[in-house]
Design brief:
With 535 residues, the protein is an alpha/beta fold. 56% of the residues lie in helices and 10% in strands. The protein has 17 helices and twelve strands. The strands form three sheets. The protein has an eight-stranded mixed sheet. The protein has a two-stranded antiparallel ribbon with strand order 1-2. β1 and β2 form a beta hairpin. The longest helix is centred in the N-terminal third of the chain and has 55 residues. The radius of gyration is 27 Å and the shape is globular.
């Protein structure tokens, strides 16, 4: 009989009945304390301000000092509450992954004729497995069981250790002021990571609480810390948008520019509120806020699942018109890839990141130029490097996906700066700024593309060809016909990455148009998920 080690036999029963959702809900309850403590701290500040003109003397000074200390202690609780939520959410996610592996092992056992008892011990079914095949039949099942139990045990130990550390630091103080040196905002992520690693946990927590703007934007700082810092800034960013709204609303006379500005701010406000709701949603995967800027149409970087713990990471770069107003819509696309990847690789921890940290074109005439793609290249390069240096354990498989104009952003970044990526995916691409896959600097066979048969991007042709067709044609209809019969491997920004002449790999898409690659019935969704998980 072959089975898990004795120490893991009780674990089999525990893992079979474990409830990841319960741990997730507990973390969400802790996160709710963040807003409560900040409100109470604000109330104390208001009360202290009201007392000042009415009360003076030594007693008043002492009371003001005590109120200030109490307010500081309340504010200290906010990042700690977020941290506890992260610990429990990550534990729940890893517990769910372990249960998925356990389920896969049980399914395998049923398929090959292996019996599993209530202690997790595997043995051959005498009626289905002949004696000479017993060992080779049972071994894969027993191995899968051990791996599931080991993942659960490791998750349990690590979560308990992190919570024990927080409890110990509560006695001595959660925060300690760090040395005055700070990295440059555009510093190399490896340099940033070395600086961060040299700080104590209490010094890092001080920076999160007192300098969230710095921590929240630095590539090279772990995702958990950036998430804590940026969540602390959510209300501040919303207040910035409201002030912009009020300034535009009160401007007299109000012309077309002000009207457009009001619409932009209104859309950003609605998008920020939707994003805030997603961040508070207890349903897995937990969202990590890695960046937020409410200027212009708004920018954000959000990870679904902690990328520092994941075995596979997808970075999703959207295209034209992308902004804060539709961040949750783009996250929905990333969620579908994660979900399909979980079906293909049960138990594998995967993270998907919406990278909207560039000024995407708002109109088609802006998308006709590569200026904004060039401007985004260094930031995307730095972000991908940051994912490498902050990752725990063996390197993750990193995939970068660009849709529409976002594919040009990805291609330009790979060409000009290099990308820490094991695979690139282009869907609905107008060209990626290079003529061949080998110019993108990723492993051979790991440049992938798809173009739906009815994607309007197929109508695009190089600017020179469009001008020629317009000159020689006698009518707009003839011009369009000429466009459609031109070289079918050429797009506006270079050769079509989905064409055989580009030298990449292709995966199919159904007829779902320019934005339908993530439709549940589109084979392109399976294609993207398989590339991400390495299947």
């Amino acid at each position: 009989m072959t089975g898990p080690e004795t120490a893991g036999q009780v674990g089999y029963a525990q893992l079979s009945t474990a409830d990841p959702a319960g741990w997730q809900a507990t973390g969400t309850a802790w996160a709710g304390l963040c807003g409560l403590t900040r409100r109470r701290a604000g109330e104390l500040a208001d009360e202290a301000a009201a007392l000042r003109p009415q009360w003076s003397g030594l007693a008043a000074t002492a009371a003001q000092g005590q109120l200030s200390d109490l307010r500081a202690q309340l504010l200290t609780l906010a990042p700690v509450a977020i941290e506890i939520d992260q610990v429990l959410a990550e534990f729940a996610a890893r517990l769910a992954a372990a249960r998925a592996r356990l389920t896969a092992a049980v399914t395998l056992a049923a398929a090959v004729g292996v019996l599993i008892d209530r202690w997790g011990r595997a043995s051959p079914d005498p009626g289905r497995v002949p004696p000479h095949r017993a060992v080779q039949t049972v071994t894969p099942v027993a191995t899968a069981l051990r791996e599931a139990l080991a993942l659960a045990a490791t998750a349990d130990r690590e979560a308990a250790a992190r919570l024990d550390q927080l409890a110990a630091e509560a006695e001595s103080g959660w925060m300690t002021r760090p040395p005055p040196d700070r990295p440059d905002p555009h510093a190399d992520p490896a340099q940033v990571n070395r600086w961060w690693a040299g700080l104590t946990p209490t010094q890092r927590r001080w920076l999160i609480g007192h300098e969230p703007e710095l921590v929240g934007r630095l590539d090279g700082i772990p995702a958990a810390a950036r998430d804590q810092a940026n969540r602390l800034l959510l209300e501040v960013r919303r207040e910035e948008l409201v002030r912009r709204w009020e300034r535009l609303l009160n401007r007299v006379p109000r012309g077309p520019a002000e009207a457009l500005g009001l619409r932009t701010v209104d859309a950003a406000l609605r998008g920020l509120d939707a994003l805030t709701a997603r961040l508070a949603d207890p349903q897995p995967p937990r969202a990590y806020l890695l960046g937020l800027d409410v200027g212009g149409e708004g920018r954000t970087v959000v990870a679904l699942g902690n990328p520092d713990r994941a075995a596979a990471i997808l970075t999703h770069v959207p295209g034209t018109t992308a902004g804060l107003d539709d961040a949750t819509g783009e996250l929905g696309r990333a969620t579908r890839v994660l979900s399909r990847g979980a079906d293909l690789a049960p138990g594998q921890e995967t993270s998907a990141v919406l990278w909207l940290d560039y000024d995407a074109p708002d109109f088609l005439h802006e998308a006709a130029w590569d200026r904004q793609a060039h401007a985004a290249g260094e930031a995307l390069h730095r972000f991908q490097d940051g994912l490498r240096v902050t990752h725990d354990g063996p390197p993750a498989r990193q995939t970068v996906l660009g849709h529409s104009y976002g594919s040009l952003v990805v291609g330009t970044a790979a060409r000009d700066h290099g990308l820490a990526a094991d695979a690139l995916i282009f869907v609905g691409s107008p060209g990626v700024g290079v003529g061949h896959a080998d110019e993108l600097g990723v492993p051979a066979g790991q440049v992938w593309a798809s173009a739906a048969p009815d994607d309007v991007i197929r109508l695009t042709r190089p600017p020179g060809e469009l001008a020629r067709q317009a000159l020689v044609s006698l009518s707009p209809v003839a011009a369009i016909a000429g466009m459609l019969t031109g070289d079918d491997d050429q797009r506006w920004f270079g050769r079509d990455p989905a064409h055989p002449s580009f030298g990449g790999s292709r995966f199919p898409s159904g007829r779902y148009g320019h934005s339908g690659y993530w439709h549940p019935d589109n084979p392109a969704l399976d294609g993207m998920a398989r590339i991400v998980v390495g299947g």
